[in-house]
Each structure stands twice: as structure tokens, then as C-alpha cells.
Amino acid sequence: MFKDMKRARRRQDWARMVARARRFYPDQDIPQQLADNLAVCSCWMCGNPRRWHGELTMQEIRQDSNDRYSE
Asked: Which top-rank group of organisms is this from (predicted)?
């Protein structure tokens, strides 16, 4: 892919995310600030499950199961 095409794709993706932020948060004045990360909430329901619930990641779960069955 050429450099110009990468730039065009990046600009298209940015415009798409700004439009999506405008749709999700119509009361916000500047949707460009929300376009990079649409999850502006950090409550326990929207946040990282490892942080709030102490859950293991998929990588850790796989490693634990491999350790159990390999012994």
C-alpha cells in the first residue's frame, strides 16, 4: 500500500470515529476529543475486568490450564 493510501485510510477512519462519537454523545461540544477512545466512563461495568473484579486474562487462563495438564 502506498503512503498516500495509508494517509487517506487514516483520515477516513478518523472521520468515521468522529461521526460515531457524535452519534453516541450528542450533548458533547467537541466529539474529536472522544474519537480516540469512545469509552469515556471508567466505572466497574465499563472498566477493565482485571482491575475491578480480579479476573485473569485469557493468556493467564491458558497458561494455568497448560500447567495443570502438563504435570
From this structure: Bacteria
Count of the separate structural domains present in the chain: 1
Rounded CA-CA distance 67/40 in Å is 38
pTM score, two decimals? 0.53
What are the pLDDT tens digits along the chain (71 aa)?
A: 667 789 899 999 999 999 998 998 888 888 888 888 877 677 888 777 888 888 888 899 999 999 988 76
Question: In three state form, how does the secondary structure of the chain look?
Answer: CCHHHHHHHHHHHHHHHHHHHHHHCCCCCCHHHCCCCCCCCCCCCCCCHHHHHCCCCHHHHHHHHHHHHHC
